[in-house]
Specification:
Chorismate lyase; two-stranded antiparallel sheet; 9 helices; Arc Repressor Mutant, subunit A; about 290 residues; alpha+beta
């Protein structure tokens, strides 16, 4: 305190384009502007806020960068209509394991297309590409193999047949030596495989006993934004899955990307029941009320 005056920062008024963008954003959040509704025109924004055309345009660009609006060439911006949300739950790992021991007819009838995307594989353009690559760096370390060990790399993509927009994309790495007992596992023409990876591995005596999912996020590249049909401001989720077998070996690493605006990652964690409780703890079924 100097001369009896408390030290305070100098108030700084937000730039006009930020104030305009905040006002529209809050109207969207309050539901006053609904998905598909048109925004005020640039001229209307200029009149309402007594600002220049550049400031009004800057506000629209801020809203676009936040993924709140859709701007098309030759048409007014609208409040963005959110895409259908896909739920990807950790419970699917057990579902896939259960499916792996069912009949061929049952395995062929359901897969990721039906469980995650709620659509038939026939409605998608599905591609699988296999090649062999050497294990290096983090991949070698996670798989506990020597650098240079041959890995089968499998790349999978599904796209909407009508729009060409990606629906799913992943790349998988498995030590080639684990699969050699079944040559069909090295042939991309075997895809899509009824029952998926867990059934494939079961044919060479491998049972998956643990799945570890590591999820991070980042902004998409320009290529990814185009492939997924992403508006500005929407990140992608990166999920690295480690599949552990009955011998505690990491037998597969799978990397998948998901657009954050249409994906819900749901993790269910079951906890072991206590077998012994301290003597002074209450005993009951948890339904007691004071």
């Amino acid at each position: 305190m100097i001369g009896g005056v408390e030290a305070r920062p100098t108030p700084v008024e937000a730039p006009i384009q930020l104030r305009i963008a905040d006002d529209i954003r809050m109207r969207i959040e309050r539901g006053e502007l609904q998905p598909g509704d048109s925004l005020p025109t640039l001229a209307q924004l200029c009149d309402r806020w007594d600002c220049s055309m550049n400031s009004a345009r800057g506000a629209v660009n801020l809203l676009k960068a936040q993924g709140l609006i859709t701007v098309g060439r030759g048409r007014a911006p609208i409040v963005r209509i959110p895409p259908a949300r896909v739920i990807r739950s950790s419970e699917r790992h057990q579902t896939e394991k259960d499916l792996a021991v069912r009949s061929l007819e049952e395995r062929a009838a359901i897969g990721e297309a039906e469980t995650n995307l709620a659509m038939s594989i026939a409605e998608q353009h599905f591609t699988a590409a296999y090649d062999l690559v050497p294990a290096e760096g983090e991949l070698a370390a996670l798989l506990h193999v020597d650098a240079g060990t041959t890995l089968l790399r499998r790349r999978f993509e599904s796209a909407d047949r009508h729009t060409g927009i990606l629906l799913s994309a992943s790349v998988s790495y498995i030590p080639k030596s684990l699969l050699e007992r079944n040559p069909a596992l090295l042939d991309e023409r075997s895809e899509p495989w009824p029952g998926g990876t867990q059934h494939q591995l079961a044919t060479v005596g491998i049972e998956i006993t643990c799945m570890i999912d590591r999820v991070t996020a980042r902004m998409p590249t320009t290529v990814e934004a185009q492939q997924w049909g992403l508006p500005d401001g929407v990140p992608v989720l990166f999920c690295r899955r480690l599949a552990i077998d009955q011998h505690d070996r990491t037998v597969e690493i799978s990397d998948a990307h998901y657009p954050a605006d249409r994906t819900e990652l749901r993790f269910s964690t079951r906890l072991d029941t206590w077998t012994e409780l301290p003597a002074d703890w209450p005993h009951g079924d948890g339904n007691d009320r004071a």
